[in-house]
Amino acid sequence: TGGCMHSTQGHTTHSGAPSLSEAPATALTPTKMPKSVSISKQLASIKALKKGSDLEKAIATVALIFRNSSDPDGKLGKATAKNLLQTQFRNFTEGEESKPKYQDILSELDEHAENKLDFEDFVILLLSLAIVSDLLQNILSVKITK
């Protein structure tokens, strides 16, 4: 794939338990928190998202989950990526295993030239699986009445 789209800013380290007042000077740089800290607390530590939209928070959540699971080089091993799909993306993937499109997407993961995925590859994988899922089709077909 093309160049990696994620920024090295997300890899800033910070010792101790960060609070909002201790956050780095730039509003875009989240502090590096231990993996034991919940995603919602990590999300709350990002100043730029204090008044962020649901969509912005959704993308930031994907980035945080990726960062928390990635190795020191900022990459995900295939086994880790598959584990994230089973634990964090189960509602989009459950029952989809028999679909040819689903199998094609996962076979591409197995055939990936590197043994690791960068953030761009991971997001493409998530979106590809979501697009072919019955759950997304159900969400998109629901008519909202006011």
UniProtKB/TrEMBL annotation:
Residues 1-18 have a biased composition (Polar residues). It comes from the Eukaryota. One of its GO terms (molecular function) is calcium ion binding. This is Sentan, cilia apical structure protein. Residues 55-94 form the S100/CaBP-9k-type calcium binding subdomain domain. InterPro entries: EF-hand-dom_pair (IPR011992), S-100_dom (IPR034325), S100_Ca-bd_sub (IPR013787). It comes from Peromyscus maniculatus bairdii. Coiled coil: none annotated. GO terms for cellular component: cilium. SMART domains: S_100. Residues 1-24 are annotated as: Disordered.
